[in-house]
Amino acid sequence: MIRVGVVGGTGYTGVELLRLLHGHGQAGVEAVTSRSEAGRPVSELFPSLRGRFDLHYIEPAIDVLSGCDVVFFATPNGTAMEIAPDLLAAGVRIIDLAADFRLRDAGLWETWYGVPHRCPELLQEAVYGLPEVNRARIREARVVANPGCYPTAVQLGLLPLLEGGLVDPGRLIADAKSGVSGAGRKESFTTQYCEAGDAFKAYGVTGHRHLPEIVQELESVSGSKVGLTFVPHLAPMIRGIHATLYAELLSGDVDLQKVYEERYGDEPFIDVMPPGSHPNTASVRGENVLRLACHRPGNGKTVVVLVVEDNLVKGASGQAIQNMNIMFGFDEREGLASGAVCP
Amino acid sequence: MIRVGVVGGTGYTGVELLRLLHGHGQAGVEAVTSRSEAGRPVSELFPSLRGRFDLHYIEPAIDVLSGCDVVFFATPNGTAMEIAPDLLAAGVRIIDLAADFRLRDAGLWETWYGVPHRCPELLQEAVYGLPEVNRARIREARVVANPGCYPTAVQLGLLPLLEGGLVDPGRLIADAKSGVSGAGRKESFTTQYCEAGDAFKAYGVTGHRHLPEIVQELESVSGSKVGLTFVPHLAPMIRGIHATLYAELLSGDVDLQKVYEERYGDEPFIDVMPPGSHPNTASVRGENVLRLACHRPGNGKTVVVLVVEDNLVKGASGQAIQNMNIMFGFDEREGLASGAVCP
Amino acid sequence: MIRVGVVGGTGYTGVELLRLLHGHGQAGVEAVTSRSEAGRPVSELFPSLRGRFDLHYIEPAIDVLSGCDVVFFATPNGTAMEIAPDLLAAGVRIIDLAADFRLRDAGLWETWYGVPHRCPELLQEAVYGLPEVNRARIREARVVANPGCYPTAVQLGLLPLLEGGLVDPGRLIADAKSGVSGAGRKESFTTQYCEAGDAFKAYGVTGHRHLPEIVQELESVSGSKVGLTFVPHLAPMIRGIHATLYAELLSGDVDLQKVYEERYGDEPFIDVMPPGSHPNTASVRGENVLRLACHRPGNGKTVVVLVVEDNLVKGASGQAIQNMNIMFGFDEREGLASGAVCP
Amino acid sequence: MIRVGVVGGTGYTGVELLRLLHGHGQAGVEAVTSRSEAGRPVSELFPSLRGRFDLHYIEPAIDVLSGCDVVFFATPNGTAMEIAPDLLAAGVRIIDLAADFRLRDAGLWETWYGVPHRCPELLQEAVYGLPEVNRARIREARVVANPGCYPTAVQLGLLPLLEGGLVDPGRLIADAKSGVSGAGRKESFTTQYCEAGDAFKAYGVTGHRHLPEIVQELESVSGSKVGLTFVPHLAPMIRGIHATLYAELLSGDVDLQKVYEERYGDEPFIDVMPPGSHPNTASVRGENVLRLACHRPGNGKTVVVLVVEDNLVKGASGQAIQNMNIMFGFDEREGLASGAVCP
């Protein structure tokens, strides 16, 4: 049993980590921190955890966290970078669910996140935690930057096309729809029931923080400049991301179904559906799986890839545990076996 | 007061017509037909109409309908064409909310709707009921083909770009999301609460019946071949369509905001929002308005147009009444004045 | 045209007042106040009002409001009592949608609302704005205390039973379910989409502020002590209240349907459904109507009354306009004619 | 590993059984039957099961089912009684999730279900599968009648009060609210998204089939005649039942919290919340737990018990597996360990 710490356990990715870790046979939660809730039982804040965790929130103290083998940061952006160096010095490995280590360029990070990076020297070392791309490097990583929910869906949907050089990398469109939990557990007007319910809208069309992360990684696999139009939308559902991806084929002579099946055939958490399928976000509710289908309407030059995932699982906490399993040599499916709750 | 008949008043577009006609000062509902519900009070099927209509459903009899000035068809595809010639012969004007008169090519109609057209001679005469394009012709029309919900949103969103020759007509993408009422009032699995709720999926990616209608009309205004990828999605909400439209600018030197404001400045039911806006479907719930905003992310070549409407109002019954108002010389806003119910 | 002021126009009852007043033929909105949004266009906060109101929020200044014939308070509890005396002195009539004038006993008011009442002398003068009970007094009132959403549903459901002395007044149960908009437009955790969506819970079982108001009024009509257990619940919908009321018949020899139909036969906004009916909140969405049905399961001693209303309309803003119509001698239906938006 | 058969695996209780059984370490699914879907892969109907079950639906053949140790019936009422005798003769144990074996009186069964019972001789032998009451008898049972979703919530909420003789058994009220999945997976108007969404209504007030089952069992534990008013409601959510129970205390001198905690202290799947709590259906989504809290408003004579469960888990399939675990001597928690998916 490894010892696990969770920093910032009061948000939705935090409670989801705890739900999944409770069923993990080789990892035990030692500490869950929260400045605002220190002293309060975790199950008081989250009654769904009643009877499962006897833990109280504690202040995020380095000495306690230093006793852990791995620490998850389920915190706002800019938190992990504050204490990461100290934890690493104490031999703790880190999985950050926020954005602190996702960009390799400290200047770009500052541009998008508005403050200077506190430990830019770690940006090169940190491994982008998309197992389907970086599994070997994740195994050895001290710092894993867990991808954002949108980036996971968009990248895994486009990867086989770009790796194979099959589409024009300068003409990519990602029209993505997210459930409201993607905005985190916080008081805000836009995520009120009466604002987000029975409603649908785009947001951040002029620029969303997930864009540079996606472009960085897609350019890395494609080896060329990527032009991506990314439009996120807020959908009236709790969990789930549906990414509808559009790309332009360079040649019509390609068996797309085969391309995807071969690329992902061995992946434990990617499900390539049969031709003609339309994946439903409900089919992945609570499960660490990304389900996709590819189409070519009218047999034309435009490829349409439909991708679904649970933003809190494969898009966040489930993927974080998958990364932990890889880092510690566990079965990659450990703690991630339970199925989607559907309907 | 003109005399109005509604054929097929048991669906959602039917009840929406009745809701709006109740507040119309110059039109009175004479007859509402339904084969299956004949004899039953309309307000028994739709308690929301209790106290508003004392009507019972009747069988769709030509002699009764012939006494009307105008007959709306809120029926499945293929119904209006059966009795349209008889009604026209009796001097009745027709507004069909289904697809019977939307395509000018009878062969194309048969391809998409699976049966031969019964009165192909009317296809050339029928006027496509998009007032923002065909107002003058609608005024004189005997048969108005009320546009589909998706086509209304997609066309009105793309029109100013195509009319101005501003974008590549061969590279258009319409990623559209519809509330469940767009599927009509019928028993089906996919529209069950437990199937459609807290869920999101695309459908009909290989081909949707609204595609040929959109292409026909867009080619008509652009004067050139149109290449459109149209992907509809089912969103967990009752009403509302959100169309996210992507097009590629031919030249970067254009003031898009001005293009839209000039094109739609005099339109009573189109609202061009200020730059940077993100229209919300909730803001049009129950109202006959189409609200849009245009963006150009990163000031690049891709235009993103965000369009919302209530699929049952500007996307169906409200637009049908707008057409009736034009046909009979009423104020175009008559019966359509009440505002969106929001939240 | 009378001149109308709205104090506190940034909440859901405020925007609903504006929606309804826009369609009112004899009342014009002169001023909408908000301390926090002063200077901002109303339609910027509420895009659903775009094109309908050219107003900007202003500071709540007595001199401006003094020029109005009537002022609505769509404010938090405790606001109206601060400036009501000044407005009355200026000859302005007042309709308070909050709780400031609902209780006649200033001590009881302080107990439930936590602060001393600022103008207790007005509590005796103020008229409780339930038209079905106090129509004549409302006509002459300077101050109308518009009932709460729960109290409207519970009282109108129980009134005929208590007025007729038909049930045991000491054994009343009101199990009420409210849509989330009943909590107002504010940032809070419990009303977040991810907290309130796909979820159901009771709240305030130990005591809800609407209880004393209901008891006061029911005791007034029944002439005896009332024992009421009131349990409110939060339901995952935007609008709507469903009150399920239980009472114990003193004698089995009574035609309940007739009792309700006779009591409410002349009421323009109460719909007594046929025996065996189950009213649906969706049937009153956006409309100023209260719909009810009474049952007597197994023909036993327990009466079950099912009541629905839109909490923002008959439960708040619609009823406020109904009161205004009565106060100024307008047709009681003016501005309240448009039907429920359903589905 | 025992061998499990599922008859009628196309409904929501069927797919939920499969989801839970997939994680069960001592039970393997041998056969899933469906007349309508025979030959089709189970995961085609339920994509959420993709990668988990390689099974195809088969015709419900006695010879195949006879090879099982236990057969679950996730079928409409009236199906299990057709083949139960044959299976018992073959030594198979039966857990019926429908109503066939819930009532001990064959005449009463016929009254409520409209057809004569096919094997009335089994009604006395069958054990009502509420483990908290009948654990010992379930262990030995050949036929377990799994309780309905409403009856589980209502009985477990009232049991401690009736067992202790603390309340008037003639004045019980159960105001119950169910998610839409309680209606099963079938095409119907009332459960359409546009009918059930953003809506709330009571139904079956004149009599619901779950009433006699509840009364039979409550009379059994209370030893006296029970008078229960049971009003079910349809709430706009997918899963979850919230029962609000009202009873009248015979004496005020009782520590209700202690009564519940002592009664249920050893129960693995009942969570008595602290005083003042309001359980939320969302906190049990997907988990086999019933969570409750008891209140006594104003310290009066009326007890209010708030009970939540997931209607498909503790209200159906989870409880069925709990019963199987008891019958076969497994750890009662086996296969039921994963936590609620919340939010």
* Topology-level CATH name of the largest domain in chain A: Dihydrodipicolinate Reductase, domain 2
Order of helices and strands of chain A: EHEHEHEHEHHEHEHEHEHEEHEEEH
Poorly predicted runs of chain A are none
**Main beta sheet of chain A, described?**
7 strands, parallel
User: If you compute it from the alpha carbons, what radius of gyration of chain A comes out, rounded to the nearest whole angstrom?
Assistant: 19 Å
Largest interface (C-beta under 8 Å) = C-D, 48 and 48 residues
Mean pLDDT of chain A: 96
Distance between the termini of chain A: 34 Å
Count of DSSP helices of chain A? 12
Question: In CATH's first tier, which class of the largest domain in chain A applies?
Answer: Alpha Beta
- CATH H-level name of the largest domain in chain A... which superfamily? Dihydrodipicolinate Reductase, domain 2
Strand content of chain A: 15-25%
Q: How do the helices and strands line up, and which of them pair or pack?
A:
The structure is a homotetramer of 343-residue chains.
Chain A: E1 2-7, H1 12-22, E2 27-33, H2 42-45, E3 57-58, H3 62-65, E4 70-73, H4 80-89, E5 93-96, H5 106-113, H6 121-125, E6 127-128, H7 131-140, E7 143-145, H8 149-163, E8 172-178, H9 193-196, E9 201-202, H10 210-222, E10 228-234, E11 241-248, H11 256-264, E12 270-272, E13 290-295, E14 302-309, H12 313-327
